[in-house]
Write a structure and sequence with these properties.
Elements lengths: L15 H9 L4 E5 L3 E2 L39 H4 L2 H9 L2 E4 L6 E6 L2 H10 L4 E4 L4 E6 L5 E5 L2 E4 L5 E2 L9 E2 L2 H4 L30 H17 L4 H16 L7 H13 L4 H14 L3
Parallel strand pairs: 6-10
Antiparallel strand pairs: 1-2, 1-3, 3-9, 4-6, 4-8, 5-6, 7-8
Helix pairs in contact: 6-7, 6-8, 7-9
């Protein structure tokens, strides 16, 4: 990953030449509108009508020629970057962003002086880029992205974007284990509770405590997530909801069971944070 100079919006100088220079260095780029936000979905891609791209809201193939799928629209293809829809976007753009994971790097985004002090005391030196409020520390290697991993610290790598802010200083170091560890979280566990379901007619044990019944349910849930080709977020949520509605009130779910579901979801690109949120939302929906 090489580093062209800082790209600034200038009415007298188009962004495209600098954008093409970044792309030629292997850095997938995309335009940002005011507020450092990607361009929104076009009418044909709204509400996932297009089938989506593997972004935070969409999954699956999409041949849309416009830069309207967030980080998943980032590209190094000069023909795409120079096409009519993209050149229109570059003329309207306020800034240029890139997909760190696509460039083979991870950005540790440090928002303030306290976060920078933590990094200096904890992480190995690497290439740094000054930001408006803090610094970007850039490491060679990719990982799962996550926001708020500690006060003032975000991780930008796979399935994420960050603003291009120039060359920076220092030699890029390999991604350290200390950074990877920042996004490792234990899955949320449903607290064991007394079974509130009625016993079968004629007496007998609650069927939800049958090991075979539970194992079959978890295996089917894993497979449902694994087989999903689109709408990954929605599939994960619906699957969590189904598991909790069947097994969530009788205390038979254990941490290994839930970990299996989280692992299946993360294998499809979900972050640990998204898994935790989906699990919590499913519990709330069921009044648990």
């Amino acid at each position: 990953m090489t580093h062209p100079t800082l790209i600034r919006r200038d009415a007298n100088r188009p962004l495209l030449p600098d954008v093409l220079e970044l792309a030629s260095a292997g850095i997938p780029v995309l335009p940002l509108r005011a507020g450092k936000l990607p361009f929104g979905n076009c009418q044909g891609c709204t509400d996932n009508r297009c089938g989506g791209r593997p972004s935070m809201k969409h999954a699956g193939p999409c041949q849309c020629p416009q830069p309207c799928h967030g980080w998943a629209a980032a590209t190094t293809d000069p023909a795409v970057l120079s096409s009519a829809p993209w050149t229109t976007a570059w003329r309207r753009a306020e800034a240029v962003a890139y997909h760190p994971g696509g460039a083979g790097v991870t950005v540790v985004d440090l928002d303030d002086a306290d976060a920078i002090a933590w990094a200096c005391a904890t992480l190995p030196p690497t290439r740094t880029v000054a930001t408006t409020r803090g610094e970007h520390w850039i490491y060679r290697g990719t990982m799962q992205s996550a926001n708020g991993v500690r006060p003032g610290v975000d991780i930008k790598s796979s399935m994420s974007y960050t603003r291009w802010l120039g060359h920076g200083t220092g030699t890029m170091a390999p991604l350290p284990a200390a950074v990877r560890a920042l996004v490792v979280k234990a899955p949320t566990v449903v607290p064991p509770v007394r079974c509130t379901l009625s016993a079968p007619a004629g007496g007998g044990k609650c069927p939800h405590r049958s090991p075979a019944f539970l194992e079959r349910g978890i295996a089917m849930a894993e497979q449902r997530i694994t087989d999903a080709a689109s709408a990954i977020h929605a599939t994960v949520y619906r699957t969590f909801l189904a598991v909790l509605s069947t097994h969530g009130r009788c205390g038979c779910l254990t941490e290994p069971h839930i970990d299996r579901l989280f692992t299946a979801a993360q294998a499809k690109g979900e972050s640990a944070r998204h898994c935790t949120d989906a699990w919590a939302n499913a519990r709330t929906s069921l009044g648990m």
